[in-house]
Amino acid sequence: MTFTFRPLDPLKDAELLHRWVTHPKAAFWMMQGARLEDVERAYMEIAADEHHHALLGLQEGEPAFLMEKYDPAHRELVGLYEPLPGDVGMHFLTPPTDRPVRGFTRSVITAVMAHLFEDPATHRVVVEPDVDNKAVHALNEAVGFVAEREIQKPEKKALLSFCTRERFFNRHSLAATGVPA
Known about the structure:
The protein is an alpha+beta fold and 181 residues long. It has six helices and seven strands; from the N terminus they run E-H-H-E-E-E-H-E-H-E-E-H-H. Helix 3 links the parallel strand 4 (87-93) and strand 5. It starts with a strand and ends with a helix.
């Protein structure tokens, strides 16, 4: 599967995002009761934030998933761990579907990681999924994340995990990602 990325447009993409983030499948996104205006506001805040960015992953030009990247020294994990130069935080969300495609979510997280590592300044990707989100823990491990410890964030108990550039590329051939190590 081949994906491209484009910056999220908080107003143009709000209805699509609202459907995705309020669906029961997205329970760990913690926006179940959000109104359209709430989603617009949340993503307008991200668009205005120099330390947090939202992108849509596209498949054949159509929105296929949401990706967020952030600077953990300034957002999400401030005071919860000691960030290293080159750390980048990441979230991703695949939308609900009536026709699941085997391997789709794994392809998405692999593409997200390859995209993050396209930036030579990115040395390590940091994630902090809910400790109860076993499905994402398995995906994270599959692409090279190593769980470090549980942390308490204001909104959840999270599993702090890291994936280095080297570990990711050791798990994925250069041919599969098209990104130099």
